[in-house]
Amino acid sequence: MAALKNAVSLYQQLKKEWNRKPPNVEKCGNILSKLKIALLELSFLPTTDSKPNKRELIIARDILEIGVQWSVQKGDIESFQRYMAQLKPITLTTVILLCHTREFIICLELAKAAKCFYTMQDYSTLQRRIMLMLNPRKTKGNVPAESYNFFIDILLLTIRDEIAGCAEKAYDRIACNEAARILFFNKLQELNTYADKRGWKSVDNHFVFTKEVKKTVDDIPSHDLALQAIEYARELEMIV
Prior knowledge:
Layout lengths: L1 H17 L6 H16 L13 H21 L2 H11 L5 H7 L4 H10 L3 H15 L16 H23 L2 E3 H7 L5 H11 L2 E3 L2 E3 L13 H18 L1
Antiparallel strand pairs: 1-3, 2-3
Helix pairs in contact: 1-2, 1-3, 2-3, 3-4, 5-8
């Protein structure tokens, strides 16, 4: 009971600070650090030697949910993933998968199998917009909660890099205004900075892509390879 009482006391402090507008992020982080230790004394992670206590589970859930939101506020993806790993339910996890293009479809199917209707409705809509290559900046106004916008910003960068990579392979050059349109840039300076980062050259209001030169069959040093093979054969003959 003492452990639970301590956890509840810290949780009340955390909740009070987190509900402030705006919350004191650093202070919340300090309280969360203390709660990590306090939670270890509870049975929110059941073992074979203990049965879960409903009240302890509810307190732990509320603490971890604030931990998730705090991680988003801090922009700490690793912390977000750690808290989500303890929470288990599929929520913002699918968004971070989509941002990094990792197993997003599998995650969707698992959630559908679990009948997470309301949650998956949001993600299915988001997926359709991405597949149709709609401007993801418009998606920011249609998210279930403000915390989703952190991942939408990452998603924008991911989509931009994917589109740029496809453009480099498909074209030798592209008009600057067209590049700004398909890459969701409103400011020319931001576009130029991005182009410099990718090694694009600006020529006559166009960006010229630097093509990677790949070796053909004629570039293979056949003479050197033949000499090397003969040398190996001689050494093998000496060994035998």
